[in-house]
Structure formats: structure tokens, C-alpha cells
Amino acid sequence: MPLLGLLPRRAWAALLSQLLRPPCASCTGAVRCQSQDFDIAGQFDPMIPDAECLKIMCEILSGLQLGDFLIKVNDRRIVDGMFAACGVPESKFRAICSSIDKLDKMAWKDVRHEMVAKKGLAPEVADRIGDYVQCHGGVSLVEQMFQDPRLSQNKQALEGLEDLKLLFEYLNLFGIAEKISFDLSLARGLDYYTGVIYEAVLLQTPTQAGEEPLNVGSVAAGGRYDGLVGMFDPKGHKVPCVGLSIGVERIFYIVEQRMKTKGEKVRTTETQVFVATPQKNFLQERLKLITELWDAGIKAEMLYKNNPKLLTQLHYCESTGIPLVVIIGEQELKEGIIKIRSVASREEVAIKRENLVAEIQKRLSES
Q: Which residues, in sequence order, are CB contacts of 160 under 8 Å at separation 6+?
């Protein structure tokens, strides 16, 4: 069962895709959303929930239209088995794992230098590791590793390879195998991972002509962590889990950069219509008007002031990117009309009050 509520999987993924938009006004500055998670907990047959998590990750990243992406997949049992087969002392597993994790930002020669010069790994052991961590591919690479003279002798590694082979069968049935790469450099140096691990990276990020590509690291990651929940259970009950995390902050950064490149303004609200007045003592009329818009499902707002200045209201709409303003004043009230103002063009038209909702809906459908 998903830990985050009882929404169906696709509904949850669609909801998260809607949430991952340019930041709202409350998510700017020092306090900002970091990530959104999805987890499946419970005892199930191997690799079925793991494959579904990868399917969800693909759906979310595709829905966000960030560009082409690739999901790297490995297994912590393969990582540990690789270290053991290459001759890494068990006491250095985690330290070497953290070095391998830097291969997405550093060249192999620099990672090798860190492992040898700073972490005391024998040079020949580092070279053996290098033979593996520069390998990536699909299910054919999984099959190749079954024949590897070192890995094929390690029980842990074989268990991980068996699960990855099964995983790729399900990924192929889900139609996402081409988005997945078995990557032996993926280590995910967090101790609580126990099986399959994965990390999504963008293959191309939006930049202006002549600029270097944005280096934001992974935009989503996750894996299996079968022992973590039990650590917090007084009775030590084992609860197998697999999940994923979407890097909201990094995605916001990419979206903001792309919009700047296109000369677009980042909207901090989804408000479609602003209710304004040029005169004092019109709060009641504004409340009636905004209620009518809300009841029609139109996203509307107004300033929480009794007597705001019209210029202040219009400047607010321009700064936040609200497309339409409806204006009511003494003259409009007397004539039974409402003025609709386009914020972008500053053009105003007067319509009958009873036609307001239909006219707003028509304009919004055309925009």
C-alpha cells in the first residue's frame, strides 16, 4: 500500500505532476520544498513493486516535460559483491561507496585518486573496480555480468543480478525499458538501501546559446530499503519497502532557468481572475462577485483590504501574472455590467453581469 494515502497509483502520479510547478509564494526564500516521495510497503513477490516505482518515476518526469531523461539502475548487493570480488576490505565498503557515488560529477581518474590516496585502497583493487564502474547498458549487460569471472563467484552479486534480470522483464512489459540503464557506477551511498537502487538524470537541460549545460545532478532517486522501518519498530517487525523521491527543488531550478531562457515570467500563482474595484466601500460587492467565480470553478482572488487602491490591485496582477481582472464600481453596479480587463494588453470591455462566468470561461479556454 502506498504510504502517502490511498490514491490510485496513476492518480497519485498525476497529482504530483501538478504539484511540481514553479514555486508558490510560500515556497521561496530560505524555506522551500525539497522533495516529494512515493513508497510501497509490504511483502510482495520480487521486483513487481520495484518496477512499478520506476514506471511512476517515468510518468512523472515525462509529464513534467523537462526533456529527455535516463534512469540509472543498480543493486546494492551487486555493489557490495563487486567490492568484495575486487578485494576491497569490508571495513572500507561504505567509504569506497561514497567515492563511487561521485562519478557523475568527477572523472574516473579523480575518483581513483581519492580512493587510493585519501582512503588507502590498494591501486590494483581500484583498477579492478574501474573495470566495472565504467560499464553501463541494458539487460544484455546483466547477462554479461552473470558470466563475469569475479561477480559470478559472489552470492550477493548473483542475487542482485537475478533480481535485475527479472526487473528488466517487467520494465519491458511496462514499455519503459529504453529509459532504464543498468549502470555499475551507481552506488547510492546511503546505508539503508538493501536491494535495487535507481537515479534519474536529465540528458539535456535548457540553456541559452553558448552557455554550459546546467549541472543539477539527479532529479529523482530511490530504491529498496527492507530494514529501515523495522529499526523504528519496538518489536523489530520487518517491513519490506521500496520507494522513490522526486527532487522538487532541482526541478524548480530547471523550470525557472528554462523560462528565463525563453523570456517568460515565472508565475507564483495559478489565479485566473482578480476581482478589483476603483472605489471605496465595495468589499461586499467584491465578495459576492468572487463567490460567483469560485462556485463556477474559476480560480479567483482579491486583496484582503476594505478599500485597496485600483493601481495597487492592477500592479499586483501584473507582478503575479494573473491574466484577467474583473472590475466593479458604482457605475458598473448601476448599469448591471462588469468590466473585464486583459492584464497583458490592458484592454477593457464591458459585459452584462449575468454573462460574466460564461465570458470568463470562454476567454480562459481560448488562452
A: 75, 76, 77, 78, 81, 195, 196
- pTM of the entire predicted model: 0.69
* Closest among 237, 255, 238 to 246, alpha carbons compared: 255
Dist CA 347 CA 340 (whole Å)? 8
How far is Cα 206 from Cα 202, in angstroms, rounded to an integer? 10
pLDDT tens track for 183-211: 999 988 777 899 999 999 998 654 544 44
Q: What is the pLDDT of residues 257-291, one digit of tens each?
A: 877 777 777 677 899 999 999 999 999 999 999 99
Burial class (CB in 10 A: 0-12, 13-18, 19+), 352: exposed
* Contact call for residues 287 and 259 (beta carbons, < 8 A): no
